[in-house]
Amino acid sequence: MIVPALIMAGGKGKRMGLPTEKPLLPFLDKPLIDWVAEAVAGAEKVSEFYVVVSPNTPLTEKHCKSMGWRVLCTDAKGYHNDLRQATKTAGLIGPVLTIPADSPAITGKFLDKIVSQFEACQKEFYAVFVPIEIRERSGLSVDSIDEYRGVWYAVSGVNIVNGDKIQGEGKIETVALITEEVEVLLNINTLKDLEIAEKIMKSRR
Question: pTM for the full model?
Fold first, then answer.
């Protein structure tokens, strides 16, 4: 299975408290979004990718276009609405991989694994969650959480959704991967997250 991907880069990133748009924040030697885009481009199971921007991230849009990446601009009406708008605008039906622009440890190999696991599970929605206590133990913030089988987890933002199904309002059958892997552990929501993630990444080099 080969799927298209959306890099979600339209959020305000207000928790960072900086004038710089979060996807463009320097992480080690390049902007956060460049780490993600390079990983997606290197994934064997990704056919094509788009960067989803919004009026919140005009400089990110400019940067992405200068890199030659495909860009979709949404109305910034919330993550799920932006996702629906992006898949509809791009005409994406069937499985679509989503990745946040602030996960610099993500790799093409990890994304290929997610696509393979999604293919094996034969569900409509595949989510990747991180145990809340693992993020807290690492000193990382817990920005977004969701419940899966009676337990609350930190949302990684890496998912596979059905581009056609998410346009409707019905319940979508979901299966999730619960993992402590660094590829999704390092999701940057605050300046402290950025500092900790850089230290972890340096130690792994």
Answer: 0.94
Please enumerate in sequence order all residues whose Cβ is within 8 A of that of 168, keeping only pairs 6 or more positions apart, or say none. none
Instruction: Tell me the pLDDT band of 123, cut-offs 50, 70 and 90.
Output: confident
Q: How far apart are the first and last CA of the chain?
A: 31
HSE-CB at 162 with a 13 A cutoff on CA atoms is 17
Residues shown for the chain: 205
CA distances from 140 to 4, 55, 69, 118 (A): 30, 28, 30, 27
Task: Report the C-alpha gap between 18 and 134 in whole angstroms.
Answer: 27
Domains of the chain: 3-204 (3.90.550.10)
* 3-class secondary-structure state, position 48: strand
Position 171 confidence tier, pLDDT thresholds 50, 70, 90: low
Note the pLDDT tens digit of each residue in 7-47.
999 987 766 777 889 999 999 989 999 999 999 999 999 99
Q: List, in order, residues 6 or more apart from 34 with CB less than 8 Å away.
A: 67
114: left (phi over 0), alpha (psi -120 to 50) or beta: alpha
Residue 64 to residues 23, 70, 173, Cα–Cα distance (Å): 10, 8, 33
Which pairs from 29-34 meet CB under 8 Å and 24+ separation?
Answer: 31/63, 32/101, 32/102, 32/104, 32/188, 33/7, 33/9, 33/60, 33/63, 33/64, 33/101, 34/67
* Three-state secondary structure call for residue 184: helix
